[in-house]
UniProtKB/TrEMBL annotation:
Keywords: ATP-binding, Nucleotide-binding, Transport. One of its GO terms (molecular function) is ATP hydrolysis activity. The keyword Iron does not apply. It comes from Nesterenkonia alkaliphila. This is ATP-binding cassette domain-containing protein.
Length: 307
């Protein structure tokens, strides 16, 4: 369980994390979503004692990270996959970490197996691909069999196979009853991994809800096709309804359900060729939520990056 209360971090005049409170439940993947610079990494770093809050608290199972006697057995974190000793082999790196916590070499072999490091465990880390480094980071996080796992942007830069692997690993760890906290700036990524989302914008929480709830809270749009488009627009043009002309015969209606649209069309003698409810996508929801909170834009790169 991770609990943040009024958690705040300021760097000089810059407020990176602005008084946020949340509680993460075990047995779920909670996605931590927000544009670049919204404060995700800072929050995660404070959770594992790498940064000190300016105000407020963040605790793991009721205690700040630093007060846990055996941190590796409490929280497994992958915050910077590159933070290893490049001259060591993967196995040696894991053994050194394990030794600091009295964890057996048998467990080292188990996590090598679990993360599919396989033969790579015998090679020096400096020759690792990004994917192998990520697996090594996750292997290290799993060493102490912790109940809480924190992964900061774990799929950044991975190939599709690596992305799929991280996703299924996160799901599996949650299914085992662990608390899994995963950050990303991509809604598409989170929608395939997380059960619950905390959305951050400029250091503040702008949504904290199950994915299903975020989806259903979207305004319903309905696609309507008719040859009498001007008449239909007239018939539907009432307060709270917005109309967008998509082409000469197609209207997109927001603020009215399909049944009411059909009824109004019948009352005014308009023949409809199509009446289709459009599911609001999570991506739409994310854009709507974070639209005002983006710290900077970089030619659309904040959203769907090629993977
Ligand atoms: N050590 C630091 N000194 C000064 N400012 C910092 C420091 N670390 C982070 N910041 C600032 O705090 C804000 C939040 O950064 P943070 O890295 O937590 O965001 P993020 O949501 O993880 O973004 P990204 O996805 O880009 O990593 C940003 O404006 C960042 O520039």
């Amino acid at each position: 369980m991770i609990t943040a209360e009024n958690l705040t971090k300021r760097y000089g005049s810059k407020t990176a994390v602005d008084g946020i409170s949340f509680q993460l439940a075990p047995g779920k993947v909670t996605g931590f979503l927000g544009p670049n610079g919204s404060g995700k990494s800072t929050t995660m770093r404070m959770a594992v004692g790498l940064d000190r809050p300016t105000a407020g608290t963040v605790t793991i199972d009721g205690k700040p990270f630093a007060q846990h006697k055996a941190p590796l057995r409490t929280v497994g974190a992958v915050l910077d996959a590159g933070a290893t000793h490049p001259g060591r082999t993967g196995r040696a790196h894991l053994r050194v970490l394990a030794a600091t916590h009295g964890i057996s070499n048998k467990r080292v072999e188990e996590v090598i197996e679990l993360t599919g490091l396989g033969e790579a465990a015998r090679k020096r880390i400096k020759g690792y691909s990004l994917g192998m480094n990520q697996r090594l980071g996750i292997a290290a996080a799993l060493l102490g069999d912790p109940a809480v796992l924190i992964f900061d942007e774990p799929v950044n830069g991975l190939d599709p196979e690596g992305v799929r692997w991280v996703r299924s690993m996160a799901r599996q760890l949650a299914a085992e009853g662990r608390t899994v906290f995963v950050s990303s700036h991509l809604m598409s990524e989170m929608s395939q991994t997380a059960d619950h989302l905390i959305v951050l914008g400029r250091g503040r929480i702008i949504a904290d809800a199950p994915i299903a709830e975020l989806l259903s809270s979207g305004e319903q749009r309905v696609l309507v096709r008719t040859e009498q488009i001007a008449d239909l627009a007239n018939a539907l043009n009432t307060s709270g309804v917005s109309l967008e002309h998509l082409d000469a015969e197609t209207l997109q209606v927001t603020g009215l359900d399909p049944r009411s649209i059909g009824r109004r069309a019948l009352e005014t003698g308009i023949v409809l060729h199509e009446l289709t409810p459009q599911q609001s996508t999570l991506e739409d929801q994310y854009m709507k939520l974070t639209g005002d909170y983006v710290e900077y834009r970089s030619g659309g790169q904040n959203q769907e990056e090629a993977r």
